[in-house]
Fold:
Amino acid sequence: MAEHGHNFKSIEQKWQKKWENSKIFQTKEKKGVRKFYSLEMYPYPSGTGLHMGHAFNYTVGDIFARMKRMQGFNVLYPMGYDSFGLPAENAAIKNGVHPKKYTEKAIANFIKQQKNLGLSYDWSRVIFTHKPEYYKWNQYFFLKFLEKGLAYRKKAPVNWCPKCQTVLANEQVHQGKCWRHQDTEVETKNLEQWFIRTTKYSDELLDKIHSLQWPSRIKIMQENWIGRSEGTEIFFEIKGEKWPIFTTRPDTIFGVTFMVVSSQHLRLMELVKPDQKDKVESFLKKIRATKQEDLENLEKEGVFTGSYAVNPANNEKIPVYVGNFVLADYGSGMVMCVPAHDQRDFEFAKKYNISIKLVIKPKDKVLNEKNLDEAYTGPGILINSGSFNGLFSEQAKEKITKALESKKQGRRRTQYKFRDWLVSRQRYWGTPIPVIYCSSCGIVPVPEKELPVKLPEKVKFGKGNPLETEEKFVNVKCPKCGNRARRETDTMDTFFDSSWYYLRYCDSKNSKKPFDIKKVSYWMPVDQYIGGAEHATMHLIYARFFTKALRDLGFFGNLKIDEPFLRLFNQGMLHGSDGFVMSKSRGNDVLPEEVSEKYGIDTARLFLVSMASTDKDIRWSDEGVEGSMRFISKVMDFFSRKKFGKTDARTENKLNKTIKEVTSYIENFQYNLAVIAIRELFNYLENGTDRKTTETFLKLLSPFCPHISEELWHRLGNKTFLSLQKWPVVDERKINPEFEKEEKTVDGLINDVNNVFNIVRSKGKDVSKLYIYTLPNEKNTYTNNLNEIKKRTGLGVFVYSVSDKGKHDPENKSKKVKPGKPGIYLE
Structure:
């Protein structure tokens, strides 16, 4: 449909076809040419397709890649699909559609929609993680990790539905019940699971964060996630067995009055006495009914297990509770609690009437443990601590640790919150883990020559993991001894796929290796990575780990590639007109197809990045889109009647200032400011200019509105692709500070005129003329910009010096003129 006389959709289709047929965005290694690897986090191809929220994400990356390409960089800008995962499997169970069919239909739709957005991807490098030619290398890396001790197996708690007879992901547990069987309580089972030893790289992951050009909040989130703490491990005896308990506050050990063990601890039930079992199980049910993300905000609760621990400092017996706030895999999964000196412990002790014992006294006030309103968490002098009384708390930490070490009751320890990566998934739609279990040989890796272990397609969905009942898949011969054996039926966490996909783009068609070292050495690391902040503590950490692990396994040869992504940018979220984040499920989504038909996709691209800084959330607005369309229509109309003239020093000043600003703004993702600068330049050019300046304007507009820019470039008689033209370079000599000063002065004048105009109009008076009164030495500033002032005010404009005789000044405005502050009169 043509809007404002311009058939934008026809223009879009024309240039998308030409770009694709000419393969102008395909790239390869070029010796001696600066490379730039720009990448967005690849999407999961949902069956609902793209909405304008997705379009915003991809437009952000495309604008950046287009400028870099025009700047002469050899740009790698690929796209692929994170196509394994739970949603496709759920769809198979609900709707009877095979995950492969569901996924490939969704991908075809995604590709079509992304191409219609005018995204300048190198489609020849596209990857699909559900294809054997990709997941073969997942399996290959897993075997290499297994060989080097980076992959291992141990028991871990999982959500288990007794009716489905299967493990559930956290997302499949709704208020403690199975998502398919809402009458069935989910149980916690401890099953053998595969882990990747990510903690081996804890220190390097932490120490290298500061070298990354990433948003501060992401770096802080990773630091907190890894959570390195220096402290003391103290051995508390429970039922004759020593349990190691980590603390950063050994100075408070004499104030420990209870212990709390994690509700997910593998050995929890060993601590529960028979008379407490019902209470504990009821408490565990309540926890399972709570969403994972809500647990942190819950009131701290617990139940006495019936067991007691012995404090090694004073041999006191202290009760052991099970609680909802201790992580099973932090330290030993149990913590010592000092309610007088920890606020969380204080609230718990008050709630359950547990004794509170002061062991640190502040210097400046007296505390009484019987009427404490809150825990005292600061430093001070030890009291009620035996031979350590009188020591300052920092000094006591060292002395108490030494004393515990001498009695073999404790030791210094560096502890991390960071845990090894559980990669086992008891699901079908993922990469099969390449391992075989033999009763004689134990765990046997699948030989590399037999990779990939392919997912069988003919499986039955509905009960448990379909792989478990697929006999041809499960029953195999042991590669070592040839006896009957059983294949692993777990598949890999899909974060495994996304932990190295950026490397595969460098050499996506290689069937002999995951990637060629020479190609990786040319392209890596990724120069600019773009994606959501929600991936801070999973994907972004796993990808960093993977890069370091592959480096140490020799996959990069002598190359020193330590980090995958040099720069990271987190784009904001697009909200619907209702104010909520745009989504299909909420029903506030806007489809790219509808926008293209009504406004043109360039209009939408321009609007999406005009509203606010690109890292901020924005709100969809039809009125805003229409405003962008009016500007684009103005540009189209301007070119349709364009006759070239001459340029002047003022225009060259404005042009070079705009080149400088737009380049910097795009480089720093301040797209909204770049659009303002481009629009201001266009307003300037409407007064008339030469061909070169007009073409430069199109180059600046091109990353934002690639289709119409390409069309107008060719309408000017050019035969080459604008998308491959050289990006304008600023000529600093042509930027005149005096012109800048004049521009600011004119802007100030226009603001003042608008204010006076509104006052006069509010009194019911019509206005058609503007009289300006200036000091003699400032008159030229306004006469030189007369056309600009007329254009922006829509009034007839007359400029007088205060010393001019015979000037029209009925209200004596010229008498009030000050330097830089002209008089204004409207009639």
About this structure: The first strand starts at residue 35 and ends at 40. Residues 405 and 411 are 5 Å apart (CA to CA).
